[in-house]
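Example 9 (inverse folding). The structure is encoded as follows.
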């Protein structure tokens, strides 16, 4: 933690004794879009696992846990999933053990940096922030499947200001796209933005001139394949201008975004 952080992260073990001789281990922080992991020791003496219940903001969300390690999926149980909302996790456990949470930093508040907005407009991803650290950077991430985010590009902090805005043109897939931004500070702490989403319909790629002489130009850079009439691949790549000077005159196909188009080389 650096001196810019003005919140103090507390976690405490609160003890409560009753007929079951259990204790409560509590963590307090803020919701930042990630899950907590809990290491849950097995007790040979009682043939039970350490943690008996998990409470999130006072509500029991897990019980009778029979795993040596598990995660607390706050997305699943929080009523509102607003970033930086306060959260309190209580682990009700046996008296003779202590559970361990190895990634408490995912709920550790950091008041010095804040995402103020993230949105998509005209196929461009924008985000606005305040109070960046020098030499920090951003990772643009797109949801590939449930629980798996793909890194697309890195954006360094280019200059420091109270409030800053950034934009990139991300790679879209056809259909629903969800994006988020990951802020990585110089001391390797990271903070996730809220996610933003949009539906994307792929635009048909055009090519010219027709007929072709020395080269073919595509309306945007993309992967292509040139086929002969036997559907054999003669040339492939990922460019916007395709050199075709060495291609003999004749009839061919070009494959773009899974579609096949005929063309003639003169």
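The amino acid assigned to each position is listed next.
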């Amino acid at each position: 933690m650096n001196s810019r952080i003005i919140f103090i992260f507390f976690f405490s073990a609160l003890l409560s004794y009753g007929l079951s001789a259990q204790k409560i281990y509590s963590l307090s922080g803020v919701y930042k879009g990630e899950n907590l992991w809990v290491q849950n020791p097995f007790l040979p003496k009682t043939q039970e696992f350490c943690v008996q219940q998990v409470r999130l903001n006072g509500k029991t969300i897990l019980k009778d846990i029979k795993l040596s390690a598990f995660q607390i999926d706050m997305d699943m149980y929080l009523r509102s999933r607003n970033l930086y909302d306060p959260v309190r996790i209580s682990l009700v456990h046996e008296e003779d053990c202590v559970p361990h949470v190895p990634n408490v930093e995912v709920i550790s508040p950091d008041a010095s940096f804040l995402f103020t907005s993230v949105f998509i407009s005209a196929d461009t991803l924008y985000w606005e922030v305040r109070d960046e650290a020098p030499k920090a950077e951003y990772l643009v991430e797109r949801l590939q499947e449930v629980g798996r985010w793909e890194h697309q590009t890195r954006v360094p902090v280019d200059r420091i200001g109270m409030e800053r805005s950034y934009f990139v043109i991300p790679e879209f897939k056809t259909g629903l796209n969800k994006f988020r931004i990951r802020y990585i500070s110089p001391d390797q702490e990271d903070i996730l933005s809220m996610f933003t989403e949009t539906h994307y319909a792929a635009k048909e790629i055009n090519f010219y001139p027709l007929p072709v002489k020395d080269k073919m130009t595509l309306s945007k850079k993309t992967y292509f394949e040139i086929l002969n009439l036997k559907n054999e691949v003669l040339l492939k790549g990922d460019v916007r201008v395709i050199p075709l000077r060495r291609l003999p005159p004749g009839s061919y196909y070009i494959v773009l975004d899974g579609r096949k188009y005929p063309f003639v080389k003169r």
